[in-house]
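job 3f2a | input accepted
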Amino acid sequence: MANEEDDPIIQEIDVFLARSLLEKLYLFQYPIRPASMTYDDVTHLSAKIKPKQQKVELEMAIDTLNPNYCRSKGEQIALNVDGTCTDETSTYSSKLMDKQTFCSSQAASNVSRYAAAVYKKGELHLTPLHGILQLRPSFTYLDKADAKHREREAANEGGDSSQDEAEDDVKQITVRFSRPETEQARQRRVQSYEFLQKRQAEEHWVHLHYYGLKDSRSEHERQYLFSQGHGLAENTELIKSPSEYLMMLMPPSIEEENDKPMAPSNVLSMAQLRTLPLADQIKILMKNVKVMPFANLMSLLGSGTDSTAVLRCVQQVALLVQGNWVVKSDVLYPKDTSSPHSGVPAEVLCRGRDFVMWKFTQDRWVVRKEVAAVTKLCAEDVKDFLEHMSVARINKGWEFMLPYDEDFVKKHPDIVQRQHMLWMGIQAKLEKVYNLLKEHLAPKKQEAQSAHPLLVSGEQRVNMAKAKVKQNYGQLEKELQRQKAEMKSNDTSAKMDVPSVRIKEEPTGAEEPMDTSAFEGLNNGLVNGLHPAQGSPEPLNGHLPGGCIDRVAQELKAFVSSTFKKQFVLTLSELKRLFNLHLASLPPGHTLFSGISDKMLQDMVLDTGCKQILVPFPPQTAASPDELKVYALWEAGDTYDQHRQVLLEIFSRNYRVRRNVIQSQLSQECGEDLNKQEVDRVLK
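job 3f2a | predicted structure (684 res):
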């Protein structure tokens, strides 16, 4: 009651619902206007609309006499578009860019919650909006200029051609007779993006007449924004109970997935994705990406996701191929579907794709002709299978697109063994269906394997790792018992003397990379810049007391924090190089010499507020895996945090971006225009 007395009601306003312009009122959102164009007194040369699509095009005149207008640039644009001759088809008859076309796009798919309000004499009149359209400049005149340029080049090149040369260009064509279209094929065609684009293009434009702000017709239409009758009988929508009124304000969410067209713009954002259950998230990611390392999958799911739950879910929708996860065929080709190329049912497509996946479990390379000969599928279907998981190499065949993920195979031998058993079952089915010969089942020659040591199968790698562990297990067990005996006999064992740790000191060059040992699960035998002596009875990375581990973590965190505050973005390779240089500058016996693995360094980077940026580098890049891992400081506490985050999001979608695209994206996301110096600082 005390709070209500402190905030008294000072005025009550009557609200009326105006229905005169119902389903006719649109809200236009204009872009930031140039200095040479004002929207209140600008001349609208023409306007047209496509009612079904709610698409509008406005043609506006530009004030060429404005001192901010660059006349030479306007003349150059007009010359590029229309050329030297002017006729009725010319875009700019005045030989000057004196007009600009704006094309609309829908700002919101559901505008039922929006209304235009007019306040007059203590009354608030609301008119529901039928659409909200954002107007943006249209640059179709640039396409026209490019077409003119290509026509001139073609005319210059083809001016000296003769009739004989024209006859040489005759090419053989293949005539195909289309089979009758099934109902399922017709439904897929109707829902396709090309069909929707064609239907949108077929809708005719309806030309409109524009009335200015001060025109008498505009003043007359503006009166319809007020409710014509103030009686309660005409405003029954506003007479609701409190519960009904709350339901109108916050209606329950309605699933609109069935109404959305299957278009490239219909993409699920990461924010929407993370609202789904974990199994659905993994299925959607794998269905879109098709091939993904486990580390990348974990980074896309966000921090805090349980890796055990992810492993359990990913095995339901993907299979392990060369240490990477490849989406299952029945996820891409559900039951009762067929090939868009040949009409082959999904069951046959799944068998053919499974054969391609199985071939990649045997070797890095697959030949398309061999796949087509075994599966008896058309070339387009086989090409789709191969493009899902491999890259074409000239005169070599198709190579699996990702390198062998040895790290995952070492960490999860039980998963590898289970997947191997699944592949044995798939192989048995393929042998029965395709009557595979010995040459299809036999692996490649040993010469090829010896020339490429990375082409070892997953099963062989697991067996080699197990044999190595068994070989060294006895020695490691004895060493552990000896250390326990020494720690029991020493009363001050809790405080470990760092200089007593045996370190083999070697010069660490700037080019020396950091490596991860094959025994990463056994306290990381290999450390950055320091390699243990072979046959040494004392392990370099023993069980350190808690106090020493805390000191190591503090020193490592200090190094990572200071490094990323100086250089906001670093690859893992560059970070390891800087860490090796840092180690070389430390005095002998420093706590960091106790051994820092790659995993410890990467975990510390993530713990200090940095994030891994998944830059989509091209598959043909020659960079090493460490050079492809990019980490960036997400929040530095300065004024450019938001700009830096927008920039990192841009580079997570494309590894090469134009400067003008970056500047426009920064302005759009941050709501402010940045000058050249500020953009340069963010980019640097």
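job 3f2a | The longest strand covers residues 99-106.
job 3f2a | closed
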